[in-house]
Amino acid sequence: MSETTAPGARFPLPRAHDPDTGLNSLQRYELSGDEHFSLAVQAGPGGDQRPELVLAKALDREEAAFHELLLRAMDGGDPARTGTARIRVTVLDANDNAPVFSQAEYTVRVPEDVPVGSTLVTVTATDADEGLNGQLKYSYQMVSVKASKIFHLDAETGAIALMRNLDFEEGTSYELEVQVRDGGDLSDIAKVVITVTDVNDNAPEISLRSALKEISEDAPSGTVIALLYVQDRDSGANGQVRCSLDGDVPFRLQSSKGNYYSVPELVLEGALDREKQSSFELVLMAVDGGDPARSGTVQVRINVTDANDNPPVFSKRVYEARVAENLPAGSVVLQVVATDADVGSNGRVSYS
C-alpha cells in the first residue's frame, strides 16, 4: 500500500476454514506485530467472520519500508487449536520528501588563472524518496548572462566547471542560484558564490602624460620635466607600483600629491651644462610588487638648450706684430681670434 494511504483504510484478509462444528469451529481472530495496523472483524450474512486489516497509524516508507504481521485464527475447543498466517505489507513510496541541499550556501575562492575545464565546486542534494521520486536534476534558478557563459553546471552531478578563462580585472565575484528538482517536481534552492582572486598577470603601464622636449641649461633645480601616467590592473601587492630612473643623471622622480590622487613627476635635480652634455636619453621603469614582479618602461629624450653662460675668449692674451713703416694703409697687420662655447646668437662674436 502507498505511504500516503489515510489512516482508517480497510483491507480484507483471507478467512480461515475449520471443518469442526459448534464450539470446536472457528471462534475468533487476533493480529499482532505492529502498531500501525489493527484488526476488525465483520459479520457476514450467514454469521461468518470476515477479518479486515485496518490502517491505524500513517505509514512512512522512509521509516519502515516493510511491516511484518501475524494473523491468528482460534477455535473454542479444549484444548484450543490455532491457525496462523503471516502478512507482509510493502509500503510503496510517495513523493513526500523534497530534495535538500547539503548547504544553503556554497562559497569557493579560485585564482583567476585556474585552467579551463576545472571543477570549481560541486553542489550536492539528497532525497529520502526512492525511484523516480528520488532522482535529482540540477539547473540554474538564477544566473547572469555573463556567468552562464563562464560556468557550466552538470545537471546529473551538480559539478560547476569553468568554460572560459577568468579575469579578476573583469569580475571579482559571481553569485549563482542552483535548483535541484526530483522526479515528482519537488525542489530546493542553494546559493553559490564564486570569488576570483588576483594573480600578477598584468604588467604595470607607464607612459608620459606630458613632457618637455628641451630644457635650458640654466633651468633651476626642481623644474618639472615630465608628468607620468602609471597604472597596474592587478590588485593588492600585485598592483602596487614603484617607479625608478636608471643611470647617473641630474634628474629624479617625485610624487606630486593633489587632492584626490598623486602624479609621478620627473624633475631636474642639479645643474645642467649643455657644453658637457647636450641631450639625455632617460629610461623610466615601473615595477609592481608581485612575485615574480612585472615591469614596464618608457623612454624620454631631453635636449638641453643653450644659455649665454660662456664669455668669448681670445686665443691669446697678447698679440704682437712687427710692421714696416712703409706698409701701405689698409694692409693686414695681424688677426685676433676669439671663440665662444655657446651656440647660435650666444656664440656669435664681434670685435671692436
TrEMBL record:
**Residue stretches making up the Cadherin domain:** 1-101, 102-206, 214-314, 315-352
Query: Which residues, by range, are in coiled-coil regions?
Result: none
State one Pfam family annotation.
Answer: Cadherin
SMART domains in UniProt: CA
Cellular location(s): Cell membrane
The record's section on Gene3D superfamilies has:
Cadherins
Which InterPro entries does the UniProt entry name for this protein?
Answer: Cadherin-like_dom (IPR002126), Cadherin-like_sf (IPR015919), Cadherin_CS (IPR020894), Protocadherin/Cadherin-CA (IPR050174)
Q: Which GO terms describe its cellular component?
A: plasma membrane
GO-annotated molecular function: calcium ion binding
So which domain of life are we looking at?
Eukaryota
Transit peptide among keywords: no
UniProtKB keywords: Calcium, Cell adhesion, Cell membrane, Glycoprotein, Membrane, Repeat, Signal, Transmembrane, Transmembrane helix
Bilayer topology reads: Single-pass type I membrane protein
What ranges does the record give for the region Disordered, renumbered to this chain?
1-23
Q: Which GO terms describe its biological process?
A: homophilic cell adhesion via plasma membrane adhesion molecules
Output this protein's name. Answer: PCDGC protein
Q: Which organism is it from?
A: Promerops cafer (Cape sugarbird)
**Gene, per the UniProt record:** Pcdhga12
